[in-house]
UniProtKB/TrEMBL annotation:
<feature type="region of interest" description="Disordered">
    <location>
        <begin position="157"/>
        <end position="180"/>
    </location>
</feature>
<dbReference type="Pfam" id="PF05721">
    <property type="entry name" value="PhyH"/>
</dbReference>
<feature type="compositionally biased region" description="Low complexity">
    <location>
        <begin position="170"/>
        <end position="179"/>
    </location>
</feature>
<dbReference type="InterPro" id="IPR008775">
    <property type="entry name" value="Phytyl_CoA_dOase-like"/>
</dbReference>
<protein>
    <recommendedName>
        <fullName>Phytanoyl-CoA dioxygenase</fullName>
    </recommendedName>
</protein>
């Protein structure tokens, strides 16, 4: 299984090999403890706000795919738009988590090529996509088996074509004979221990469904070869979102909060438009003030200090960190805004 020991991040080549082979890779304890604590506290406050009806952008129990509307009777299993400035101070905490060097370092490794000189491997290639929160629902709830951007009605030939389309040739001539490169990656970052809600079928990202998988009940409790992804607080699983997978919430008394994000690569072009824009990011992303997001003094609530600035030494290092983070975030946003303006009405990837 694609996994790492706590505090260790495998080499870029090893990460890419694991993702290509298995369709996912697990990194243990990816964030410094203080940053994890800040994100956990912000997520708790945001979850409480959303459950009370104070934040309307949620995933409603009983409905798997967008669009969702808040239903107090049904309850929620997710919170949308974590970086939307309308969320208040918590949006700054979440934005810092999304743009963290630890997360984006792995993203660049997964989306990069094996050619160290390839321009595909730098910050300028990244595209801002999605950042949401998955939480435990009030009652047991399960998602059906699915691929995020390929409907269950797709034929074998259609599946194979779509799976290949999600990976594109390298811009490097030396890499053209090797496996295609990814145009995005998706991840779940667990904020609580004993996170075991994601179930995947390793290797299914690279092939059409078997006949057994096609014939299975959409909510089948078991598919041949399935794996329950086990995460502790601070662990993250990066995965191909067209791997055959589902979410299962049985022990609803156990707190679950997982940051559910995705980051794109410019090589995707408009291929990612529907999967990303269907979540409504165009409505607020241009209003994010990254100068404010990365300003010093992010304290409050359960945080005793600024978990990001406290790890930096001296004013010069702090200023350099802020400018670097702000510049990268703004460039990533520019590409998302451009995608939104060029794409028009994209509809929805899946229904139900």
């Amino acid at each position: 299984m694609a996994d790492s020991r706590p505090g260790h991040i495998p080499s870029p080549a090893a990460l890419r090999a694991s993702l290509r082979r298995d369709g996912f890779v697990i990194i243990r304890s990816i964030l410094p403890p203080a940053q994890l604590a800040a994100l956990h506290a912000a997520a708790r406050r945001t979850t409480a706000l959303a459950r009370a009806g104070g934040w309307p952008h949620v995933r409603t129990v009983g409905k798997q795919f967008p669009p969702w509307t808040f239903d107090p009777e049904a309850g929620i299993w997710g919170v949308q738009g974590l970086m939307d400035p309308a969320l208040g101070p918590e949006s700054r905490v979440f934005a810092r988590g999304y743009f963290s060097d630890e997360i984006l370092g792995v993203v660049k490794a997964l989306l990069g090529s094996d050619d160290d000189d390839d321009d595909d491997n730098d910050d300028d290639s990244l595209v801002l996509e999605l950042y949401n929160l998955l939480v435990n629902p009030p009652t047991p709830f399960a998602l059906r088996w699915h691929r995020d951007d390929i409907p269950a009605t797709a034929t074998t030939e259609e599946e194979e074509a779509r799976l290949l389309h999600n990976r594109t040739p390298s811009s490097s001539s030396r890499q053209q004979q090797q496996q295609p490169l990814y145009s995005h990656t998706q991840y779940n970052l667990a904020l609580c221990d004993a996170d075991a809600s994601l179930v995947v079928v390793p290797g299914s990202h690279a092939r059409a469904r078997t006949q057994a998988e096609r014939d299975a009940d959409p909510f089948a409790e078991h598919l041949p070869g399935q794996l329950v992804v086990q995460l502790g607080a601070g662990d993250v699983v990066f995965y191909d979102n067209n791997i055959l997978h589902r979410g299962v919430y049985e022990d609803v008394a156990r707190e679950r909060m997982a940051l559910h994000g995705s980051v794109g690569h410019v090589r995707a072009g408009k291929a990612r438009a529907r999967n990303v824009l269907q979540h409504g990011v165009r409505d607020w992303v241009e209003g994010v003030d990254f100068d404010e997001v990365f300003a010093a003094g992010l304290a409050g609530g359960d945080e005793a200090s600024d978990a990001w600035y406290d790890q930096l030494q001296g004013e010069a290092e702090r200023k350099a960190w802020k400018e670097r983070q702000k510049a990268r975030a703004e460039k990533m946003r520019e590409k998302l805004v451009k995608l939104g303006r060029e794409s028009g009405d994209v509809g929805y990837s899946l229904t139900g």
